[in-house]
Amino acid sequence: MFFMAKLRPALFLKYMMEFITKQSKMNKTILLDSGHGFIIASEYQTSGKRSPRWPDGTILYEGECNKQIKSRLMEMLQAENYPFVDINPESTDVSLSERVNRANKYENSLYISIHSNAGGGTGCELFTAVNCSSASTALAREIEAQYKPHFEGERWRGIKKKDFYVVKNTRMPAVLVESFFMDTERECKKYLMTRAGRDRIALWIFTGLKNYLKSL
Ligand SMILES: [Zn+2]
Q1: 34-86 pLDDT, tens per residue?
Q2: Which of 20, 135, 136, 176 could disulfide-pair with 127, CB 3.0 to 4.6 Å?
Q3: What's the gap in Å between 61 CA and the centre of ligand 1?
Q4: Could you tell me the distance, in angstroms and rounded to a whole number, from the CA of residue 37 to the centre of ligand 1?
Q5: In this structure, how many other beta carbons lie within 10 angstroms of the beta carbon of residue 120?
Q6: Which CATH number is 28-215 given?
Q7: pLDDT band at residue 118, thresholds of 50, 70 and 90?
Q8: Which residues keep their CB under 5 angstroms from ion ligand 1?
Protein backbone atom coordinates (compact mmCIF):
# COMPACT_ATOMS: atom_id res chain seq x y z
CA MET A 1 0.00 0.00 0.00
CA PHE A 2 2.88 2.35 0.80
CA PHE A 3 4.29 1.72 -2.67
CA MET A 4 0.89 2.30 -4.28
CA ALA A 5 0.33 5.53 -2.35
CA LYS A 6 3.49 6.97 -3.76
CA LEU A 7 2.40 6.41 -7.37
CA ARG A 8 0.93 9.30 -9.30
CA PRO A 9 -2.88 8.93 -9.42
CA ALA A 10 -2.96 8.45 -13.22
CA LEU A 11 -0.40 5.68 -13.04
CA PHE A 12 -2.20 4.08 -10.12
CA LEU A 13 -5.44 4.10 -12.12
CA LYS A 14 -3.67 2.56 -15.11
CA TYR A 15 -2.31 -0.28 -13.00
CA MET A 16 -5.70 -0.85 -11.41
CA MET A 17 -7.43 -1.00 -14.81
CA GLU A 18 -4.85 -3.47 -16.10
CA PHE A 19 -5.32 -5.58 -12.99
CA ILE A 20 -9.12 -5.57 -13.32
CA THR A 21 -8.95 -6.42 -17.04
CA LYS A 22 -6.57 -9.28 -16.35
CA GLN A 23 -8.80 -10.59 -13.58
CA SER A 24 -11.93 -10.49 -15.72
CA LYS A 25 -10.19 -12.40 -18.52
CA MET A 26 -9.00 -14.99 -16.05
CA ASN A 27 -12.51 -15.32 -14.69
CA LYS A 28 -14.21 -15.87 -18.01
CA THR A 29 -16.93 -18.45 -17.45
CA ILE A 30 -16.66 -21.41 -19.78
CA LEU A 31 -20.12 -22.56 -20.83
CA LEU A 32 -20.23 -26.19 -21.90
CA ASP A 33 -23.02 -27.62 -24.00
CA SER A 34 -23.13 -31.29 -24.93
CA GLY A 35 -25.34 -32.02 -27.91
CA HIS A 36 -28.62 -33.98 -27.56
CA GLY A 37 -30.01 -35.99 -24.66
CA PHE A 38 -28.54 -38.63 -22.36
CA ILE A 39 -29.94 -41.96 -21.15
CA ILE A 40 -32.69 -42.46 -18.55
CA ALA A 41 -33.40 -46.04 -17.40
CA SER A 42 -31.49 -47.45 -20.39
CA GLU A 43 -33.60 -45.32 -22.74
CA TYR A 44 -31.70 -42.90 -25.00
CA GLN A 45 -33.57 -39.59 -24.90
CA THR A 46 -33.01 -38.49 -28.50
CA SER A 47 -34.33 -40.01 -31.73
CA GLY A 48 -31.63 -40.65 -34.33
CA LYS A 49 -28.23 -39.22 -33.37
CA ARG A 50 -26.60 -42.63 -32.97
CA SER A 51 -24.21 -44.91 -34.84
CA PRO A 52 -25.33 -47.91 -36.88
CA ARG A 53 -25.38 -51.17 -34.94
CA TRP A 54 -21.86 -52.52 -35.38
CA PRO A 55 -21.18 -56.20 -36.19
CA ASP A 56 -20.47 -56.87 -32.48
CA GLY A 57 -23.95 -55.58 -31.60
CA THR A 58 -22.85 -52.27 -30.03
CA ILE A 59 -24.35 -48.83 -30.78
CA LEU A 60 -22.98 -45.41 -29.88
CA TYR A 61 -25.54 -42.85 -28.71
CA GLU A 62 -24.18 -39.43 -29.58
CA GLY A 63 -25.69 -37.64 -26.57
CA GLU A 64 -24.09 -40.14 -24.20
CA CYS A 65 -20.70 -39.71 -25.85
CA ASN A 66 -20.92 -35.90 -25.93
CA LYS A 67 -21.86 -35.77 -22.25
CA GLN A 68 -18.97 -38.02 -21.23
CA ILE A 69 -16.50 -35.87 -23.15
CA LYS A 70 -17.99 -32.80 -21.46
CA SER A 71 -17.66 -34.47 -18.04
CA ARG A 72 -14.00 -35.15 -18.64
CA LEU A 73 -13.47 -31.57 -19.80
CA MET A 74 -15.19 -30.30 -16.63
CA GLU A 75 -12.84 -32.40 -14.50
CA MET A 76 -9.88 -30.80 -16.25
CA LEU A 77 -11.29 -27.28 -15.79
CA GLN A 78 -12.08 -27.97 -12.14
CA ALA A 79 -8.57 -29.29 -11.50
CA GLU A 80 -7.05 -26.04 -12.76
CA ASN A 81 -9.63 -23.68 -11.24
CA TYR A 82 -11.26 -22.42 -14.41
CA PRO A 83 -14.84 -21.30 -13.79
CA PHE A 84 -17.33 -23.26 -15.91
CA VAL A 85 -21.02 -24.00 -16.19
CA ASP A 86 -22.70 -27.12 -17.52
CA ILE A 87 -25.41 -25.68 -19.77
CA ASN A 88 -27.39 -28.95 -19.98
CA PRO A 89 -26.73 -31.08 -16.89
CA GLU A 90 -30.05 -32.93 -17.33
CA SER A 91 -30.34 -36.36 -18.90
CA THR A 92 -33.32 -35.17 -20.95
CA ASP A 93 -32.76 -33.47 -24.30
CA VAL A 94 -32.78 -29.73 -23.50
CA SER A 95 -34.14 -27.55 -26.34
CA LEU A 96 -31.72 -25.40 -28.28
CA SER A 97 -33.55 -22.20 -27.30
CA GLU A 98 -33.33 -23.15 -23.62
CA ARG A 99 -29.60 -23.80 -23.98
CA VAL A 100 -29.14 -20.36 -25.51
CA ASN A 101 -31.32 -18.68 -22.85
CA ARG A 102 -29.22 -20.23 -20.12
CA ALA A 103 -25.96 -19.24 -21.79
CA ASN A 104 -26.91 -15.64 -22.49
CA LYS A 105 -27.24 -14.94 -18.75
CA TYR A 106 -23.44 -15.08 -18.42
CA GLU A 107 -21.70 -11.82 -19.32
CA ASN A 108 -17.98 -12.57 -19.35
CA SER A 109 -18.05 -16.01 -20.92
CA LEU A 110 -17.46 -18.24 -23.90
CA TYR A 111 -19.42 -21.18 -25.24
CA ILE A 112 -18.31 -24.59 -26.45
CA SER A 113 -20.80 -27.04 -27.91
CA ILE A 114 -19.64 -30.65 -28.10
CA HIS A 115 -20.92 -32.98 -30.82
CA SER A 116 -19.87 -36.05 -32.76
CA ASN A 117 -20.19 -36.06 -36.52
CA ALA A 118 -22.24 -38.16 -38.92
CA GLY A 119 -22.47 -38.54 -42.67
CA GLY A 120 -19.75 -41.06 -43.38
CA GLY A 121 -16.64 -38.85 -43.37
CA THR A 122 -13.46 -38.88 -41.35
CA GLY A 123 -11.76 -36.54 -38.89
CA CYS A 124 -12.84 -33.54 -36.85
CA GLU A 125 -14.02 -30.02 -37.60
CA LEU A 126 -15.10 -26.83 -35.85
CA PHE A 127 -17.96 -24.49 -36.62
CA THR A 128 -18.53 -20.84 -35.85
CA ALA A 129 -21.56 -18.75 -36.83
CA VAL A 130 -21.44 -17.22 -40.33
CA ASN A 131 -21.09 -13.68 -38.99
CA CYS A 132 -19.21 -14.60 -35.84
CA SER A 133 -17.01 -12.31 -33.77
CA SER A 134 -13.25 -12.29 -34.19
CA ALA A 135 -13.09 -13.77 -30.68
CA SER A 136 -15.02 -16.85 -31.86
CA THR A 137 -12.58 -17.27 -34.73
CA ALA A 138 -9.60 -16.84 -32.38
CA LEU A 139 -11.01 -19.51 -30.03
CA ALA A 140 -11.60 -21.86 -32.98
CA ARG A 141 -8.04 -21.30 -34.24
CA GLU A 142 -6.50 -22.14 -30.86
CA ILE A 143 -8.48 -25.39 -30.70
CA GLU A 144 -7.58 -26.12 -34.33
CA ALA A 145 -3.86 -25.62 -33.54
CA GLN A 146 -4.04 -28.38 -30.92
CA TYR A 147 -5.64 -30.96 -33.21
CA LYS A 148 -2.54 -32.40 -34.85
CA PRO A 149 -0.55 -32.63 -31.59
CA HIS A 150 -3.38 -34.71 -30.13
CA PHE A 151 -4.47 -36.67 -33.20
CA GLU A 152 -1.42 -37.16 -35.36
CA GLY A 153 -2.31 -38.82 -38.63
CA GLU A 154 -6.04 -38.09 -38.36
CA ARG A 155 -7.76 -35.80 -40.82
CA TRP A 156 -8.43 -32.18 -39.91
CA ARG A 157 -11.48 -30.92 -41.76
CA GLY A 158 -11.06 -27.25 -40.90
CA ILE A 159 -12.92 -24.36 -39.29
CA LYS A 160 -16.24 -23.89 -41.04
CA LYS A 161 -18.97 -21.30 -40.84
CA LYS A 162 -22.55 -22.43 -40.41
CA ASP A 163 -25.42 -20.95 -38.44
CA PHE A 164 -26.07 -23.80 -36.06
CA TYR A 165 -28.67 -22.46 -33.61
CA VAL A 166 -26.45 -22.37 -30.53
CA VAL A 167 -23.46 -20.64 -32.13
CA LYS A 168 -25.65 -18.16 -34.00
CA ASN A 169 -27.82 -17.14 -31.04
CA THR A 170 -25.40 -17.08 -28.12
CA ARG A 171 -23.94 -13.63 -27.43
CA MET A 172 -20.47 -14.71 -26.29
CA PRO A 173 -17.63 -16.18 -28.39
CA ALA A 174 -18.94 -19.59 -29.46
CA VAL A 175 -17.68 -22.67 -31.27
CA LEU A 176 -19.21 -26.05 -32.03
CA VAL A 177 -16.88 -29.06 -32.09
CA GLU A 178 -17.68 -32.04 -34.33
CA SER A 179 -15.39 -34.73 -33.03
CA PHE A 180 -15.03 -37.72 -35.37
CA PHE A 181 -17.74 -39.62 -37.22
CA MET A 182 -19.98 -41.93 -35.25
CA ASP A 183 -21.02 -43.70 -38.47
CA THR A 184 -17.44 -44.43 -39.56
CA GLU A 185 -16.62 -47.66 -37.77
CA ARG A 186 -12.90 -47.14 -37.21
CA GLU A 187 -13.32 -43.66 -35.69
CA CYS A 188 -16.38 -44.58 -33.70
CA LYS A 189 -14.70 -47.64 -32.20
CA LYS A 190 -11.31 -46.02 -31.66
CA TYR A 191 -12.25 -42.61 -30.29
CA LEU A 192 -15.94 -42.24 -29.54
CA MET A 193 -16.56 -45.60 -27.87
CA THR A 194 -13.44 -45.75 -25.71
CA ARG A 195 -12.57 -43.92 -22.52
CA ALA A 196 -9.07 -43.21 -23.84
CA GLY A 197 -10.49 -41.69 -27.02
CA ARG A 198 -12.99 -39.52 -25.16
CA ASP A 199 -10.28 -38.39 -22.76
CA ARG A 200 -8.09 -37.38 -25.66
CA ILE A 201 -10.89 -35.39 -27.31
CA ALA A 202 -11.49 -33.57 -24.00
CA LEU A 203 -7.77 -32.89 -23.60
CA TRP A 204 -7.55 -31.56 -27.15
CA ILE A 205 -10.37 -29.06 -26.53
CA PHE A 206 -9.04 -28.18 -23.06
CA THR A 207 -5.54 -27.41 -24.34
CA GLY A 208 -6.82 -25.21 -27.16
CA LEU A 209 -9.19 -23.43 -24.81
CA LYS A 210 -6.42 -22.74 -22.29
CA ASN A 211 -4.21 -21.31 -25.04
CA TYR A 212 -7.04 -19.03 -26.11
CA LEU A 213 -7.54 -17.78 -22.54
CA LYS A 214 -3.80 -17.19 -22.18
CA SER A 215 -3.78 -15.16 -25.41
CA LEU A 216 -6.32 -12.62 -24.09
ZN1 LIG B 1 -24.87 -33.71 -32.65
Answers
A1: 999 999 999 999 999 999 999 999 999 999 999 999 999 999 999 999 999 99
A2: 176
A3: 10
A4: 10
A5: 8
A6: 3.40.630.40
A7: very high
A8: 35, 115
